[in-house]
Amino acid sequence: MQHVQTGDLDAFDLKILDEVAADGRISVTELASRIGLSKTPCNARLKRLIDEGYILGFRGVINLPKLGLDHVAFAEVKLSDTREKALTEFNQAISRIKEVEECHMIAGRFDYLIKIRTHNIRRYREVLGEKISSLPHVASTSTSVAMQSVKER
């Protein structure tokens, strides 16, 4: 993990963040061993990092292609209105679409870049046509389909 702004974090805190990012199920005993602290101070630091919002949560990483969800497409979305109210309405609506894995507001020739994962191109077409294109203020979309995922987190 690359660290740009560390604030009040020291080298031990940064090591904890790196280890937890790599393995969220790591035991405190193993974590302490890897970063060079004893268990009690390591646990206190981990709790502080959670309490202060540096660690937002822990989750399982599911092998989605194994479940048949191996079609990934990226949709560029241009809005007809980019005033704050329109952006908020779009943001709230896009958050409710389960096939959307990521949605990023972009500064450039379009307004949003959306990562959508489905079973196949037919289902993607349905999601795009029935869900995304009908969201508030969507003027146009353009799709790129991923041929291979080289790196994902």
Written account of the structure:
With 153 residues, the protein is an alpha+beta fold. Helices cover 37% and strands 20% of the residues. The protein has five helices and four strands. The protein has helices at residues 11-22, 28-35, 39-51, 84-94, 121-132; strands at residues 71-79, 100-105, 112-118, 138-145. It has a four-stranded antiparallel beta sheet with strand order 2-3-1-4. Helix 2 (28-35) packs across helix 3. The longest helix is centred in the N-terminal third of the chain and has 13 residues, at 39-51. It is elongated, with a radius of gyration of 20 Å. InterPro entries: ArsR-like_HTH, AsnC-type_HTH_dom, Dimeric_a/b-barrel, Tscrpt_reg_AsnC-like, Tscrpt_reg_AsnC/Lrp_C, Tscrpt_reg_HTH_AsnC-type_CS, WH-like_DNA-bd_sf, WH_DNA-bd_sf.
Distance between the termini: 11 Å
Count of separate DSSP helical elements: 5
Number of strands: 4
What value does the Rg take, in angstroms?
A: 20 Å
Envelope shape: elongated
* Mean pLDDT figure: 94
Strand portion, in percent? Answer: 15-25%
N-to-C SSE series? HHHEHEEHE
Strand order across the largest sheet: 2-3-1-4
What can be said about the biggest beta sheet? Answer: 4 strands, antiparallel
Low-confidence stretches: none
